[in-house]
Design goal:
Elements lengths: L5 H13 L1 H20 L2 H21 L1
C-alpha cells in the first residue's frame, strides 16, 4: 500500500471527524456481515433471521 502524503492524512482525518455517524454505521454493517459469513453457526443464523424479521416489522410500522 502506498504511503499517504501529509495532506491526504489531514483530508482523511477531516472527513472522518465530519462523518462519525456514517463511519460507525459502515463499521457495524461490516462487522455484521463478517460475523455471518465467517463465524456464525446454525443457531446464530437462526437468531439472526429472527432479528431481521423483527426489524422489518418495526420498519413497516414506522413507514
Amino acid at each position: 500500500m502506498a504511503k499517504l502524503t501529509e495532506a491526504q492524512k489531514r483530508a482523511n482525518k477531516k472527513w472522518n471527524d465530519a462523518h462519525k455517524k456514517r463511519m460507525n454505521y459502515i463499521r457495524k454493517r461490516s462487522d455484521s456481515k463478517n460475523f455471518i459469513l465467517k463465524y456464525a453457526d446454525e443457531e446464530d443464523l437462526d437468531k439472526t433471521l429472527e432479528y431481521i424479521k423483527i426489524r422489518r416489522e418495526e420498519l413497516k410500522q414506522n413507514n
